[in-house]
Amino acid sequence: MKKNVADSNREIAYRLSNNLPRLLREFSRDYERRIFNQLAGRGHPRIRPAHSQVFANLGLGSVRVSELAERAQITQQAMGKMLKELEQMGYIDRGVDDSDKRAREIRLTDQGVKLAADSLAAVDEARTHYEEKIGAEELQALEERLRQAVDQLQLEYLPESWTNNR
Questions:
Q1: Whole-structure pTM value
Q2: Residue 65 CA, distance from chain mean position
Q3: pLDDT of residue 40
Q4: DSSP secondary structure string, 129-145?
Q5: Quick one: how many helices (H) and strands (E) in the chain?
């Protein structure tokens, strides 16, 4: 049986809007929205999702802006701008690394440490929400399957300094 144009268009629209990348993106956006709403309520209203590109890629010790930008897959200029914003908001200090004058040592301030703790609490609260909605075992299984896929695909999603310390 030959499909008419309307049926073909519906099938195309369904496949474009209901596929793995879209599902992952929607889940991620919802998770992120919940976390940043909670952070705003915990006294961090100026922290934006884009700032997570800094914190998620810092690793341990000193780092060059170029390394951070590469890990986050953004330009050095964009990373430098975010670092400047976070420094002006009082979340980080940037200093020269004593062992490599070209590198900047990025340290969390007391306010940055509070943001980190509040972020962990916000992630836990968001996770609890999802556990209540889809079940703790199902969420754990989903996370484990995604982690296995990332490992099998050999995707490098952690800063090198974190993977060396596993």
A1: 0.76
A2: 18
A3: 97
A4: HHHHHH-HHHHHHHHHH
A5: 8, 2
HEC secondary structure over 73-101: CCCHHHHHHHHHHHHHCCCEEEEEECCEE
Is 5-163 in CATH node 3.40.710.10?
no
| Per-residue tokens: 127 | 């996770």
- Asked if residues 50 and 33 have their Cβ atoms less than 8 Å apart, the reply is no
Q: What is the mean pLDDT of each run of 10 residues along the chain (166 residues)?
A: 84 88 94 96 95 80 78 90 95 80 78 92 97 97 93 74 49
Q: Where are the domains of the chain?
A: 5-163
Q: CB–CB of 82/68 below 8 Å?
A: no
Name the strand (E) or helix (H) holding 39: helix 20-41
What pLDDT score does 109 carry? 87
